Amino acid sequence: MNEDNSALSTQHSELDQWWPSRYGARDQLGTLNEITPAKVVAAARLVRAGTTYDLGRTLHADVPRFEGRYWQQTLVSSAHIINPRKPGGVPHSAGSGQAGGWGRNRVNWVTELVTGTLQIGTHLDGLNHLQIGDRFYNGYRLEEIAEEWGTSKLGIETVPPIVTRGVLADIARYRGVDRLQPGQVVTVADLEGALRAEGVAVEPGDVLLLHTGWGVLWDEDPTRYTSGEPGAGMAVAEWLVEHRVAMTGADTWSFGAVPGEDPERPFVVPQTLNVRHGLFIMENLDTAALAAARVYEFMFVLTHHKTRGSTASGIAPAAVV
Amino acid sequence: MNEDNSALSTQHSELDQWWPSRYGARDQLGTLNEITPAKVVAAARLVRAGTTYDLGRTLHADVPRFEGRYWQQTLVSSAHIINPRKPGGVPHSAGSGQAGGWGRNRVNWVTELVTGTLQIGTHLDGLNHLQIGDRFYNGYRLEEIAEEWGTSKLGIETVPPIVTRGVLADIARYRGVDRLQPGQVVTVADLEGALRAEGVAVEPGDVLLLHTGWGVLWDEDPTRYTSGEPGAGMAVAEWLVEHRVAMTGADTWSFGAVPGEDPERPFVVPQTLNVRHGLFIMENLDTAALAAARVYEFMFVLTHHKTRGSTASGIAPAAVV
Amino acid sequence: MNEDNSALSTQHSELDQWWPSRYGARDQLGTLNEITPAKVVAAARLVRAGTTYDLGRTLHADVPRFEGRYWQQTLVSSAHIINPRKPGGVPHSAGSGQAGGWGRNRVNWVTELVTGTLQIGTHLDGLNHLQIGDRFYNGYRLEEIAEEWGTSKLGIETVPPIVTRGVLADIARYRGVDRLQPGQVVTVADLEGALRAEGVAVEPGDVLLLHTGWGVLWDEDPTRYTSGEPGAGMAVAEWLVEHRVAMTGADTWSFGAVPGEDPERPFVVPQTLNVRHGLFIMENLDTAALAAARVYEFMFVLTHHKTRGSTASGIAPAAVV
Amino acid sequence: MNEDNSALSTQHSELDQWWPSRYGARDQLGTLNEITPAKVVAAARLVRAGTTYDLGRTLHADVPRFEGRYWQQTLVSSAHIINPRKPGGVPHSAGSGQAGGWGRNRVNWVTELVTGTLQIGTHLDGLNHLQIGDRFYNGYRLEEIAEEWGTSKLGIETVPPIVTRGVLADIARYRGVDRLQPGQVVTVADLEGALRAEGVAVEPGDVLLLHTGWGVLWDEDPTRYTSGEPGAGMAVAEWLVEHRVAMTGADTWSFGAVPGEDPERPFVVPQTLNVRHGLFIMENLDTAALAAARVYEFMFVLTHHKTRGSTASGIAPAAVV
Q1: Residue of chain A minimizing CA distance to B267
Q2: How many angstroms separate the CA of residue B310 from the nearest CA in chain C?
Q3: Is B139 exposed, middle or buried (0-12, 13-18, 19+ CB in 10 A)?
Q4: What is the model's pLDDT at position C96?
């Protein structure tokens, strides 16, 4: 397939109707339909060493973030003050060297309060996050599904636990660099070249992860990290759809180069994947250990927390070999 | 082993020092140390049908909850108003039947804001949640590890992704009831009887889940759900430790009967497991489908979101067969 | 003036353009323009006894509230744990009977975290809260003034401190009841009758408060409190505008009867006052003590907290005589 | 009185019991007891021009703040999407140029969600904020008054509306500088000199405000603003108590020089005023306009929002002449 023509045709058709989805007119699962029971069984067969790689980053108030996105957590230790005065409580007794609590077992607890946006840190976007105009995947409209608390369709709770084959395409290694540059577009040639060099082929239902090396800036230079990013171009987006990939993601804060191929179409790569094709994207993955270990094929597992009607879930998927 | 004596001895020794842990004086992993690479490989071998059971409940503002615990989510759709007026934005044009957005691709997005406590819904407790007096697992003290944003040790981010063998003990079925009663104590005889009836044996490194049937009240009667619960007694807690179980959990809001065996020792079961033994507990699991399908042995997978220094993580683990 | 005709004409003209305001095309102050320096001086002259009445209710998590509105506050006492270990910190020393803290002065502090909506409790609505379609007071459009953090015009920070003459119209007393009924419409005859009975006349720039008696349910029966309310009809709304009242408010959760005069026009009374006339409204006032003391004329003072671009501010105005 | 001896004696007695308060053993009002009805009446007599000065700053996410303190506000405009589909709702009709809403009056609304700490921006501290060890004003102990949601005594809701005489001491002008330096201690000589130059005397029940000029950095250099501050020394603190001042405050983020007179006693000035004497403090006041206008005597009004058990309230008091 000619990449340029493909990208062009996408642009020319951008006002056309893209729904119903090939998975059915009311489908909300999108490309996760590609993960069959046989796929799950085959993925489990890839586990031979019992080694697990954690692909998620720890979230805290100071992670790289955008205007309007934030995360705050506050320790709540008031139970240590309140429990000793409950019926059956034991006071913090001076002299004994022992702290009090509730009951003869002197139980206490610590909790926390969190406030923030779910679109932060390592996360999975729901198909209710991005739109073309006011329409989502399968043509759902915002005016139909918006509620005060979230959306009544396509929320992150519609995404089931994921167990499937995972593939890492180490684009940085293929290009012979530590990390790609911001705005640098990953081409189909890059992707296919990297996979060939790794000796793995992408199959329907796979999760395909891109390692660009950009993720090293997460800790090293948070401001630069969010100032731009390398990433897939529209041709790679088409390729993912054609290869019936179930999910994708990279070690970047969005998916697709920023600045992008076409300055007049901001975030068109994730928008196209989510809205037109129902293809799920993970952001801010930590692929460094996997790339360093040259692990290119693995059982991918993702069991995310489900909050009703949310556009994202903070995640920490694992690669198991 | 004599259950009564075991429980008694636990109580008599409750002011004794319980650290260092058998996993080392500075260990933070607790019983997760029992999950070896061989265990991971063996767990993956249990996947033969490719069927996945979701053990997590969807969180929203109206789930059963306690005084002081809450969850609020608010849809944020202001990008639909702001994007059309950005440079390159397309207005919501009257007449065309098409909504505007940013760029020629008219991109828009929806996000959300969340506020609440992590100790709510289906969640995994960190070893920094419960204390005896002011001490945690391995003798860590609150005054050493408290920070404004959480705890500097034992936070939920120290818990790695979990892949191991899972076992469900259907106590309700063994007892011949739909659900156990609040305050009803699960005994070692119940547990061993249920496992025998199921034809499965618990091995070191397993995740052992208890199905009490109480979880059906989550949706049916939220107020009653939190008013009490059936659950493991202290003898079962000892049994879990002796059998080197890696994690446990049930279809209840805490772990252990409420009201408990000893009214003078509130929450002594989870306190003992967490603090003395470093044994992890999951709460509010949805074990109904697993029990209905009589699936008693499975690959257990849990990849939870990691927030720094938190005492819990909202989860939705999966059982895969 | 014929009330029915007035109300009717308002309805007939409801699709007409209502801007620019009589206070100028870019004005954001609305009826607060009526408060002149002379008005401030005259108001201060009303203070003869030095008695202050607090018109605000205390906000907490359990006050009457609507779907989607909430308020949560959490005590944060972690400084008591952290301060003693700071450089120069004094430990909580066993035996001395004294708690530690930071420095030789053993300083500690308690703080709190709040999350919620500003549209709750006793509050002043900004002119950026209600709209007709997408237009605010003076024709400002949502698409022009919406930002992620609030609105760039008409926010509550544009409201200055208020010192002016206040008048209480005790409608309940005039009608000879403890409290009016939900849906009961306060008429111009009620209002003028009550003022005549009190011997006070409304002048331009006054703050006019209505006592309906409904506020007693705030504490007594929170659910009933929000299930409906008595209040001003459209004719009273017109009267307030004609009399150039600067602000109004009542002991109810909105302003105007609920259910209202016209079931096809929900919240048309506050909408008309805010949007067409720039007349400010306070909600959930506590007018009981003022009514009981038969204080009908006073210096009204309101110094509210200013948060940028907010649609409301929690308030506790005072009546001083 | 000899300043040095006074300060010294304070330090020597710092472990002594300071309660009960001179206002009574269970008093929670502290120095606000000094504001008598006669004081209120006299304050109102100071209003001759009808000019109002706003002493509060507008709060937003980017104001100067400390580690752990924050403020976030998010616009909520979902009603514009939801209202048109309610029963009786009018759709956003293409072609008519008019936006829809709920009812024939097409009502819509905008709200917001806020999250943050109350100890930020221009605010009044409650007497439940600072402690010596674990004790507050009048000897109240944290273990007695802490609740999950705040404190059961001394909360900001116990503070009534304030109307009294206000005095501004322009220390910067007296010292002949635009602004004092960080760590620069305001002495009794400075204070008395400034008041003498202004021709005003402080009386019991007054609110005394200090203008140091430091506040100009609030907008100009937020980072420097919070890096230190000029302010009252311990001798001025004693002076305020002796003169029975009802409240004080300055154009700084705390009250008292930072770094302070005694490096071993952090925040001892506000701690002493709050805890030992029940004297209220306002922080981050905007005194610039008042100082520029050379207004030194005025009616001070403060009607703050009351949230249950809070340690602070965001405020915007006014000076009226």
Answers
A1: A107
A2: 14
A3: middle
A4: 56
Question: What are C246's two structure tokens?
Answer: 């600067």
Contact B221, B227 (CB under 8 A): no
What are the strands, taking DSSP E only, across A150-198?
150-151, 162-170, 185-186
Closest in B81, B94, B149 to D77, CB measured = B81
| Residue D5, pLDDT above cutoff 60 | no
- D101 and C CB contact within 8 Å: yes
Name all chains with 3 or more CB-CB pairs below 8 Å to chain B. Answer: A, C, D
User: Looking at CA atoms only, how far is residue B71 from chain C in angstroms?
Assistant: 10
User: Which of 50-69 (B) contact A at CB < 8 A?
Assistant: 50-52, 54, 56-61, 69
Per CB-CB distance under 8 Å, the chain A contacts of C75 are 76, 78
Please indicate if any CB of chain C lies within 8 Å of the CB of A115.
Answer: yes
The pLDDT of residue A15: 66
Query: In the numeric block, which tokens belong to residue C258?
Result: 């609920």
Among the residue ranges A94-108, B111-125, C252-266, D288-302, the one predicted with the least confidence is A94-108
pLDDT in tens, C67-110: 889 999 999 999 999 999 999 999 987 445 678 999 999 999 99
Taking only the tens place, the pLDDT of each residue in A58-80 is 999 999 998 889 999 999 999 99
User: Cα distance from D157 to chain A (closest Cα, Å)?
Assistant: 21
pTM of the model: 0.94
Q: Which of the four pLDDT bands, split at 50, 70 and 90, describes residue C1?
A: very low
Query: Is C115 part of the contact surface with chain B (CB cutoff 8 Å)?
Result: yes
B76·D81 Cβ contact <8 A = no
Asked whether the predicted pLDDT for residue D297 surpasses 80, the reply is: yes
Among A177, A239, A169, A188, CA closest to A214? A177
